[in-house]
């Protein structure tokens, strides 16, 4: 039976586990022993280790046929030292993994001024966070080319799900940009992203990038309006870009400074994936249906 190693066992990774359980032995690197019991209950064998401490990573060398790397880079510096430590640890094994799937960010494209962004577009990251992601992509792809390890990179935009919607932001009254100043954003439902990861393990081409996005880029303010309308909340007021720096949190402002529309043709044609939620509206409709069903069960 194949062995799968998960690096960074968070929400999307845990959504992926039921899709592969029974087909492979699943391991997960974790620095927190407090999570071990919960991981074991899901059929996952925990491996203690910390990507920030390379001397704790010996146990993963030669362990797995397949590696899925969800872990984010550190929040400082010019390089992704965590990915560097991971590659160094995997390279020490008597056998190398056959393939690695890495979840990067669509932020590596930088600001495309609303233009279409296919995977052939050069990476021009503007933020320090995106530059660290681009560094991780480069390290993994260069290692794959040298070693023969099959590396696939998923460039992921904003992830949403029923429990990952901007409801609190809308309730706080955080404003959005006026339409003429607004940026295009891209999304993917967390369940669809988990399915894309599994499809990449099965069908990705070596040393290949994939835009892991849905079919419907939209302006950020339109996204907030859609969520507000569906959940019966007030739409955010619109402000000009000149006012945004004074009123918006820095992390939200950084997204508004980059505008692009991702092309997801490779995911659908090469990975042969049919999205369950091709638009955010589809995902929100499913979230509302689930919420109503839960409320009905609670009333019974």
Give descriptors for this structure:
single chain; 300 residues; alpha/beta
pLDDT below 50 for ≥5 consecutive residues: which ranges? none
Q: Structural class, from helix and strand content? A: alpha/beta
Q: Mean pLDDT across all residues, rounded? A: 95
The CATH H-level homologous superfamily of the domain at 2-162 and 187-215 and 260-277: NAD(P)-binding Rossmann-like Domain
Give the count of helical stretches: 11
Total strand segments: 15
First-to-last CA distance: 44 Å
CATH uppermost class of the domain at 2-162 and 187-215 and 260-277: Alpha Beta
List the strand order in the largest sheet. Answer: 3-2-1-4-5-7-12
Element pattern in H and E: EHEHEEHEEHEEHEEEHEEHEHHEHH
What can you tell me about this protein's structure?
The protein is an alpha/beta fold and 300 residues long. The chain has a domain at 2-162 and 187-215 and 260-277: NAD(P)-binding Rossmann-like Domain (Rossmann fold), CATH 3.40.50. Helix content is 39%, strand content 19%. The protein is built from 11 helices and 15 strands. Strands 3-2-1-4-5-7-12 form a 7-stranded parallel β-sheet, sandwiched between helices. Strands 6-15 form a two-stranded parallel sheet. Helix 2 (36-41) links the parallel strand 2 and strand 3. It is globular and about 60 Å long. The termini are far apart.
């Amino acid at each position: 039976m194949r062995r799968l190693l998960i690096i960074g066992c968070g929400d999307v990774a845990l959504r992926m586990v039921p899709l592969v359980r029974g087909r492979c032995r699943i391991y997960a690197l974790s620095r927190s022993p407090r999570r071990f019991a919960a991981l074991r209950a899901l059929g996952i064998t925990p491996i203690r280790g910390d990507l920030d401490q390379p001397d704790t990573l010996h146990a993963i060398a030669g362990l797995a046929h397949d590696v899925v790397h969800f872990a984010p880079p550190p929040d400082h510096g010019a390089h992704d030292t965590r990915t560097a430590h991971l590659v160094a640890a995997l390279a020490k094994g008597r056998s190398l993994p056959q393939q690695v799937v890495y979840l990067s960010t669509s932020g590596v494209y930088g600001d495309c001024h609303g233009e279409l962004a296919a995977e052939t577009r050069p990476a021009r990251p503007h933020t320090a966070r995106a530059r660290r992601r681009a560094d991780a992509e480069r390290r993994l792809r260069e290692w794959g080319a040298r070693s023969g390890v099959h590396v696939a990179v998923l460039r992921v935009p904003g992830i949403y799900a029923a429990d990952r919607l901007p409801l609190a932001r809308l309730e706080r009254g955080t404003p959005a940009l006026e339409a003429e100043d607004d940026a295009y954003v891209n999304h993917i439902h967390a369940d669809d992203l988990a399915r894309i990861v599994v499809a990449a393990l099965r069908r990705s081409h070596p040393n290949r990038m994939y835009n892991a996005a849905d079919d419907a880029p939209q302006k950020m303010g339109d996204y907030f309006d859609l969520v507000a309308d569906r959940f019966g909340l007030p739409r955010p007021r619109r402000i000009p870009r000149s006012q945004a720096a004074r009123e918006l949190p820095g992390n939200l402002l950084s997204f508004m400074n980059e505008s692009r529309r991702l092309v997801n043709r490779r995911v659908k044609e090469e990975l042969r994936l049919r999205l369950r939620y091709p638009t955010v509206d589809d995902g929100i409709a499913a979230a509302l249906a689930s919420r109503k069903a839960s409320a009905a069960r609670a009333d019974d």
